[in-house]
Structure to design on (596 residues):
């Protein structure tokens, strides 16, 4: 009988502790919501009733769910093993305090870098600790949290019987569960209709994976990209591009021709392979240390047209936001056109070329034939213009190592770099393709008025492989160092030896051709190419994989925070920690337009 009473008392005590634990978890869910409000300040507050409604139910559901999961993992097992209230209350207060302070630290990391805690983020933040913890609050706050948790734990324990009698528990569970489920249903609808006022909060909270409808719709043959024009044009008001209204006035209007050649390495512009372009370079302004913005067409062209880091290209806002460059050309009455061969993605729908006539060239026998047709199209078009014009021309034959049938190019030579036998074949075929492009450039530029501003560069470089995926993932100098040549009317040739990148092309045109007086930081990550660049790094790539080129090393990172460091020639992997100051600057620049 006595033993049975002890067992009953133990069960009652465990039941009481479990009930207490549920209320303690709910209390910590409320505290987590209060701390989590800091994330909203980083992302930007909603500006519609729908946005506030979603954010409210999502916040309640998410943080109470996290608190309950924390209770199940760390406190509930101890309740069964050590059903002693004093021990459990102290242990639970410690665990909850640790969780809340981790959440608070995550809000600091997210506000500064735009990422949540991970081994990579923690390593980065540790090196930047002085900048992050710039007051004594990091000492006082943990003490305050522990005191609050101990007080709450004791307060709830003393009143747990009253709470049980009032039977509020079921109502609270029902309310929280309804918020959790409805927030996911809400997000499914918002994702299907591309309502960015809701979906822009997707990454705001840690360990948040809101449900989407796209995979379900696509598996049932429904095109989830079909939306009303109003829904597609609805952008996050958090984006500030440009940061301030553009102030532009040009005294004269000059025609502008930009030629971007896919897979054009800087070290291949010489008298043997590209004699015309080599001579043209010597007669004009030539930039000897120029970097592309990426290793594929989309990313690199984005950096050229927008002047922004390639990680912005993944943001939904830029799917409907045209470049400041083309907007100002339109405002000043320029005719604009883009000439390129057919590509796999539908570039005619890209906001990058909004306001431009798009001329797509077909090639029956490959990209070289398409390039010939592209040159014919731009030559005819520019000859028929009676207004100032801006033309962007893309040539692609070198990417495919292509030449026209029957083309007689240059003699084969021994490569200057170490290559395998198969790569040597590609190297010399690549030279043939470059020589073909050189002849097409001669045709085009001899037909262009000398008063036209001409910019010639590589979209990206070239590595000698037939695997396009390997080429895109290669961030070595050969794949990102490209030539840049600018012809300014009535000027002599000169050599520029400081480092430049694609980020500076748009600011150069805007300031020196279109008469814009805004600082380039209003709309670009770069600065005018005519201003010496004192920055210690260049960002190359997109948000999935990118490299930071510094003076004495190259750091390559992926989206999971894994990184490798190489020497400047990309030939030796260095066993060292990444340089935190440069990476921190990179991450802040990648979010700067969302923090205004």
């Amino acid at each position: 009988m006595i033993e049975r009473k002890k067992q009953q008392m133990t069960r009652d005590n465990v039941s009481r502790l479990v009930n207490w634990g549920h209320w303690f978890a709910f209390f910590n869910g409320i505290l987590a919501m209060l701390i989590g409000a800091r994330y909203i300040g980083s992302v930007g507050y909603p500006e519609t009733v729908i946005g506030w409604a979603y954010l409210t139910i999502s916040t309640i559901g998410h943080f109470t769910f996290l608190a309950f999961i924390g209770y199940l993992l760390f406190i509930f097992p101890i309740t069964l093993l050590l059903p002693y209230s004093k021990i459990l209350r102290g242990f639970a207060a410690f665990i909850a305090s640790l969780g809340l302070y981790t959440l608070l630290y995550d809000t600091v990391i997210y506000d500064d870098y735009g990422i949540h805690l991970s081994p990579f983020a923690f390593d980065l933040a540790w090196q930047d600790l002085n900048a992050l913890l710039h007051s004594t609050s990091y000492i006082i706050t943990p003490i305050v949290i522990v005191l609050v948790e101990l007080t709450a734990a004791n307060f709830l324990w003393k009143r747990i019987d009253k709470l049980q009698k009032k039977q509020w528990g079921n109502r609270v569970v029902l309310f929280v569960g309804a918020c959790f489920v409805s927030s996911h249903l809400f997000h499914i609808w918002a994702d299907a209709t591309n309502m960015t006022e809701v979906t822009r909060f997707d990454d705001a909270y840690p360990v948040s994976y809101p449900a989407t409808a796209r995979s379900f719709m696509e598996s049932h043959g429904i095109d989830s990209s079909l939306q009303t024009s109003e829904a597609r044009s609805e952008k996050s008001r958090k984006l500030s591009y440009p940061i301030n209204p553009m102030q532009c006035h040009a005294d004269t209007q000059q025609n502008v021709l930009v030629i971007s050649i896919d897979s054009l390495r800087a070290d291949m512009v010489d008298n043997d392979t590209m004699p015309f372009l080599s001579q043209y370079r010597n007669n004009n302004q030539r930039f000897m240390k120029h970097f592309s913005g990426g290793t594929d067409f989309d990313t690199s062209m984005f950096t050229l047209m927008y002047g922004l880091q390639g990680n912005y290209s993944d943001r939904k806002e830029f799917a409907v936001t045209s470049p400041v460059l083309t907007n100002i050309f339109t405002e000043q009455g320029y005719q604009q056109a883009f000439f390129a061969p057919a590509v796999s993605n539908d570039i005619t729908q890209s906001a990058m070329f909004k306001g431009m006539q798009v001329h797509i060239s077909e090639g029956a026998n490959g990209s070289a034939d398409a390039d010939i047709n592209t040159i014919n199209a731009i030559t005819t078009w520019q000859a028929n213009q009676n207004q100032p014009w801006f033309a962007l021309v893309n040539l692609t034959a070198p990417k495919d190592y292509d030449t026209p049938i029957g083309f007689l190019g240059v003699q084969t030579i021994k490569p200057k770099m170490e290559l395998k036998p198969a790569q040597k074949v590609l190297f010399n075929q690549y030279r043939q393709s470059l020589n073909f492009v050189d002849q097409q450039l001669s045709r085009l530029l001899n037909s262009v008025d000398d008063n036209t501003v001409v910019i010639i560069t590589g979209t990206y470089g070239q590595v000698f492989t037939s695997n396009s995926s390997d080429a895109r993932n290669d961030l070595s100098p050969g794949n990102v160092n490209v030539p840049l040549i600018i012809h300014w009317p009535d000027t002599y040739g000169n050599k520029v030896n400081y480092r430049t990148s694609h980020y500076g092309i748009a600011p150069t045109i805007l300031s020196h051709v279109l008469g814009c007086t805004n600082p380039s930081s209003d709309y670009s990550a770069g600065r005018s190419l005519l201003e010496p660049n004192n920055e210690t790094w260049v960002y190359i790539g997109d948000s999935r994989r990118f490299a930071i080129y510094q003076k004495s090393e190259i750091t390559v990172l992926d989206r999971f925070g894994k990184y490798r460091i190489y020497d400047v020639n990309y030939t030796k992997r260095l066993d060292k920690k990444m340089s935190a100051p440069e990476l921190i600057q990179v991450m802040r620049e990648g979010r700067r337009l969302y923090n205004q």
Remarks:
- The first helix runs from residue 2 to 43.
- The two ends are 72 Å apart (CA to CA).
- The first strand starts at residue 256 and ends at 261.
